[in-house]
């Protein structure tokens, strides 16, 4: 089997330019709608993040220059800092700085509040930051994941009054806190459950499709999802339509068939807790 490299490159450029034309059309329609409603799309205040092959970037910049300023290394959207390769390293570093700042402040009043109130404060100022949009953290690098886990470990040590040298696993287990990696899985699986039960936006439900077979097998009634093929491990495998079916299919069949989201959450946490802290 021979592959024409030049032909493949031209095909990639064609699809890239085709998507670029769609993007320009979308931006034009947005600009026209704003104008008709006495608003203006200010190019100087519109931030741009470019995630594209290097050979296409000059063409993209040229086409969208009238709508937005030059591309930036990082942009913030809904409180999340995105970078061109979607590594989220900058976002994780920002979370780390913010959470450790809050933990230092909380430690100063630790002796003035009860343990129950201290836990509420930690959840309000630290855990909430770890859990915010954490479904985006699927496929995160080990370095970034360990940064997030270090925040949770520090919060657990502050609450349980344990030393830095003490092993953190018993502390997390006694608090019944899922480690960061399993909290991410919990969020994705709850979104998947809602999407399959008409409790999520249609743009999420449309990304999931049931697993079908040519024959009537026992697995047909187990509510499995089709896992799409992906080309890029760094992006394709991290997409919701890819990671959600893989995590969903790994659940026990009795969990996938539950009818209530609250019951599903309860049993899911128990399932992930047993995985995180095996006996």
In summary, what is this structure?
This protein is mainly α. The chain is built from eleven helices and two strands.
The helix content, as a percent range, equals 55-70%
Structural class, by secondary structure, is mainly alpha
Quaternary structure state of the chains depicted: single chain
Main beta sheet strand tally, sense and closure: 2 strands, antiparallel
How does this model look, in words?
With 279 residues, the protein is mostly helical. Among the domains are: 89-177, no CATH class; 182-276, no CATH class. Helix content is 56%, strand content 2%. It contains eleven helices and two strands; from the N terminus they run ααββααααααααα. It has helices spanning 5-36, 57-64, 89-108, 115-131, 142-160, 168-175, 180-196, 202-205, 240-249, 253-256, 261-276; strands spanning 75-77, 80-82. Strands 1-2 form a two-stranded antiparallel sheet. β1 and β2 (80-82) form a beta hairpin. α4 packs antiparallel against α5 (142-160) and α5 (142-160) packs across α6. The radius of gyration is 23 Å and the shape is globular. The chain starts with a helix and ends with a helix. The model is unreliable at 1-15 (pLDDT under 50).
